[in-house]
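Example with several molecule types.
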Amino acid sequence: MIRSLVIVLLGLGWSQLLLYADPPAPSAKEPLDPEHAVKMARGLDVFKKHVRPVLVQRCLRCHGGEVTESEFDLTDRTHLLKGGLAGPAIVPGNSQASLLFHVVNHSKKPRMPHKEDKLPQEAIQHIALWIDLGAPFDKPLVEREEAVAWTKRVVPPEARQHWSLQPLRDVQPPKNVANHPWVRNPIDQFILDRLQQAGIEPNPLADRRRLIRQAYFGLLGLPPSPEDVEAFVNDPAPDAYERLLDRLLASQHYGERWARHWLDVARFAESHGFEHDYDRPTAYHYRDFVIQALNDDLPYDVFVRWQIAGDELAPNNKLALMATGFLAAGVHSTQITKNEVEKHRYDELDDMLATTGSAMLGLTLGCARCHDHKYDPIPQRDYYQMLSAFTTTVRSEIDLDLDPEGYRQARAKFDAEHAPYQAAVDAFVRDHLPSRLAAWETSSASAAYREGQVWVVLEPTDLKSEGGAKLTLRPDGSVFAEGNNAQFDTYSVTAKATLNEIRGFRLEVLADPKLPKGGPGRAGNGNFALSDLRVEVLSEISGNNESRPVVLTRPRASFEQKGLPVAHIVDGDAKSAWAVDPLFGKDNAAAVECGEPITDAIGKGIRFTLHFNNNTGHNLGRFRLAVTSAEYLDLRADSIPADVRRILLTASEQRNDAERQKLLAWYGDRDAELQRLRQAAAEHLKKAPKPKIVKALISTEGLPAVRLHTQGEDFFPETYFLRRGDPAQKEGVAPLGFLQVLTRTDKPEERWPVQPPPGSRTSFRRKALADWLTDVECGAGHLLARVIVNRLWQHHMGRGIVATVNDFGTRGDPPTHPELLDWLAAELIRNGWKLKPMHKLIMSSATYMQSTAHDPAKAARDPDNRLLWRRPMRRLEGEIIRDAMLALSGQMDTRLFGPGTLDPNSRRRSIYFTVKRSQLMPMMVVFDAPEALVSIGERPTTTIAPQALLLMNNPQVRNYAHGFARRLLATEQATWSEVVRQGYRAALGREPEAEEQQASEAFLQRQLESYLAEGKTQARHLAVTDFCQVLFCMNEFVYAD
Amino acid sequence: MPDRIPAFFAPPSPAYPSRRQFLARAGNGFGLIALASLLEQQGLLASGGYRNPLAPKPGHFPAKAKAVIWLFMNGGPSQVDTWDYKPELAKVDGKDLPGFDKHTGFFADQVGPLMKSPFKFERHGQSGTWVSELFPHMARHVDKMAFIYSCWTDSNNHSPALFKINTGMSRMGFPCLGSWVTYGLGTESQNLPAFVVMYDTLGRGIPKGHSQNWGAGFLPSIYQGTALKPQGQPIEDLVRPAEMSPVQQRAQLDLLNQLNRRHAEQNPAEADLAARIESFELAYRMQMAAPEALDVDREPQLVQRLYGLDNPKCSHFARQCLIARRLVERGVRFVQIYSGGMENQLSWDGHIDIKGNHSGFALETDQPIAGLLQDLETRGLLDSTLVIWGGEFGRLPVSQKGDKPGRDHNPHAFTVWLAGGGVKGGVQHGATDEIGFKAAVDRVSVHDLHATILHLLGLDHKRLTYRYSGRDFRLTDVHGNVVTSILA
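Resulting structure tokens for the full complex:
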């Protein structure tokens, strides 16, 4: 069957291959039939009466209605002619050549309608007739208005009836149980009321040892020290527990513990994901923002607003900028082909909106991307209008001053400390330098300078480049080349002789930051290649005068590139050269002797010619020439500029002020004492504080986007309504808008959207979104409050009042205690959105403080503990298990903030592990840490053998056990009894029971003997290490409640 | 008790030292351990408490295939140079393809003319299936294979296409086929991971998108694939600390057991505590069982030679194929082996020199795969093991220009074959156009392919759902039709 079809296809001939290449544009030129008008009229009649109903009923759903299978859309004639993947569907006027006819007639594959009954023969005949008549349409199968109706859809009032979309109700705690002795605060009234209705009594309070342990792990994620436990257990004050909570909430570790909960929700990671998973080394600032905001108790509404639009709301606040990392935390393809740029951009916008929806509002907004939300009253229209808020938002890296005030203070302090150093230098120059210069001038040391026995820097009067480079003289006597860099240039430099007898020349090749790789050459790598140096003596300095070449001998250089020695510059070979690879960005020099000294030189000119014939573009970038009357002078001998030497030769009383200053400055550089003072000042200056400028990844607009290997734009200027979520099916620009069901005003466009201030680089659309999200009067503020108090409840109580913490929609679980949820949300808003008072409120309730004891009778009435008659037992997260072991090992590094690490041996808390999507920390993943791809509100808790393997065999775990063992053995009386007792107190917060004590001591002794039998020197330590590791493995250790 | 982990992987290659960074993830998710049955046997489970998510479960309907071995030719093998014979392409060799969208592949500026296959094709088997000279060994098994010539996908770019074929979605973050299967069927193996992934051991990198290709997405992480690390310990934390003897570790576990049981007795309603006690015993046994399963040196010479372990050109892949058989034999549900490294010449991604590229990777895989099919058949395992061969997309019939021409990515057509459990051998489904550019007849989407694979395992792709974020998700989203013509 397939073979025969292939043959049929082959029979169509080579030209038909076009069918399978990308389809041509719809043909505009069909030959005009003389009967055209008549046929059209008949065709239309057939279409309306017979064809249209069949197409609409049997074909439209898959081909342009709900979906467009095989890219074939038959909603109108243009698309019908264009066809789909299998090529044009019809040839107007020829049904037998039309694919549409054959597939419905089942004379070709694929037989249509797909997997349904064949069309009635009569219908097939009508379709054939209609095609033969030219296949006219009176109007598309789907009306245009109908097609775009969804972009204007208004949700009906009843859609708002779902409980979570309603405003907060004004609820009061049930009064009937207000005086019950179990009740400690209003939360308990809500809980107890329901329990009593069900005939269940709640558990009594847990003992203080359990309470302090669950409070420590709950708020800080760390175990209490034995001293903390004993102090609390023995504290007789009635407010002991309250003071404990206050102390824990004030701890810096609180932010570290609770940030992890939010980072799960924010799908935070520090790499791009996709093919290369490149790092985002500056993304950690968002994590630091979350920690800092929690520790500062930043009001939750501000916390949310900054994450959406911190750059617009508080552009000068570093925390607000760092907060926008929320939007930037999603994945980003590092390799986007041209055909996928737009689709990927919509994916990226979807990530921002879907995460915002789940994290802030507990709504699955992402489900409305391709169609109206199937369950919740979220039309696709609302999705695109909200998506529009992020249209021009990109990831960008900015410089962030982490501590401007700290720098200002440190700098002022330093400047004060530095002042004496500079004062000493100034005083020395003022009070001592002139007399020291005078003394020097009279000493023999100065004679060499006067006599020209040092290098005397030339003052060129004429500079030429044959290759068209621009040569300029700098104040230090060096010549700088710029402009055209010829393939092989020749420079000539002419200067007046200032010494009467000249025996040698020096050419310094000098580094300069303006040159490639710092020079000294102009080649791409910073090199030059000097093929020849020629020197002539001119009878006069200018004019076409007589010149006499100087024979140059005895070349030497401070460095020679291998194979390119300095001898080449005087070897008469026009090609061979001297060069200095790899000493780029460094100064070097060459010197030559005159074969015969030049005598009576004063008044004559000297012309240097530098030839660069060796290598393309290898011309010098910066150089300086000097002469000397000394014989074979050291390359590194001191030098004096010609003008300074003239001053030196002038009698001191004849020098003017400027000359005096110039000489003094030159001499000062050579005065040992002054150098010492200057050196001291410079050394001190090196210790100057620097501003803490760091790169930070943020989300914003109008700044360059972080670009990877994309073949297209970073963003598109408009967001469109996309039919079925397909960028190829745009239905007009989507203006900024919000969820209708969470809008309680007739004029939302007047309440939230604003014009950006003049000159703003951002659109302020995100500000409008942030305003709507946190608006408790007309916007989403009430739901926002419900969702966050539910998250607090979830982490304290093991399950949210709404168990589906990221889904408050109709498919989510209904609240077990709706009145309590509303009361807590209202309480949060009343408290100015501060979270710490909410923690304290929840943790002060008897509901939180009750024991975990199980009771079959109560369980029979409420097996899932939905009414909270007991506190559930929960396993700690991987991060916290590790942090607890690390704390017990005595090795924890408690520094806050800063770049993370992937080193499993890090001693910092687990929150500071870099979250690299392709390289998640095994210890976290094995204990159910999320993959940071989508918002996760609740981690699963699995019990699997790899967790056991990790605790038994992982080198880091073993290392923590070693550290713990060292601490237990450090005490004076580290008897087995004491080791066991102290181990229990530190790890579990209690004394061992007799049986535990006995079993553990026996174990220690057995292990000791076993290690001793093996001849291990550390046998005692190893035995205790084994015991510590057993403590880490205990259920009681990882179940902190 | 075996102390050593068999050195079955190649030594680290100095050419790709940075590869290690990709691997830290590997070895997680070794979670696929059936606790429940053991717990139930030992009466440790409180009634209605702990439910093991990995317990073996029946499918929606009876099926032959119990396990899957997916031979993944990473980088996108060329259909017209392997299985999809196109004589017409030879006739138009050197001509331009009119109307061709130069953005179809990855390199829009290197589009060349149509190019015939550099390989000869011949008919093989009772079915007379055309096979390229690349695969002399596999050609002997064509009557076991069902070919789908008309596969197509969404993306012309590796990682979205890899995500698509593995998870059904071209975006990151969705559960892969192996995870869905493990979620749907649990695992038969008592002390091995249920879903094992192996990738290149010659230091050529890990497939683009890394562990996301075998990630569990929003499914619980216990369903993610366990990637065997190509060097060092293949599985994380499988070897006890060096300073400790088995006796000393056993004593530790005995004390732990005693202390934990006291705690569990005080909290009798907490099923998780019992499960956790048992997990340590299981872990202790796994320390022995996993190395044994991975130790191909235990296989007779004859079997090793059948796979080509004695041939240095293919021994690395042969080893992995043989491991796959040993795993499936021991009840592992899903094994995926990637041939080739990350991209370009390190994988089947023949942008340059399609002839040299495909010849090399065919040599690496042909004999091992043929050996695997033969071995499975001999042991009677082929009936219950579904073997899949394919890549993430196909390649273009036009050349990619260069000294030695290659072929660029082609999302419009690629070939997949299936063999074994429940598959009708010697069958051919669908066809591309005359030049092998686009799937033209009986087109099979990735969703269709997934639906078919699930069907072969007894799972209805429409009923295999997981509630996440308010929605019941499926591997096949809202699509998918089973390709019934290849069913036995």
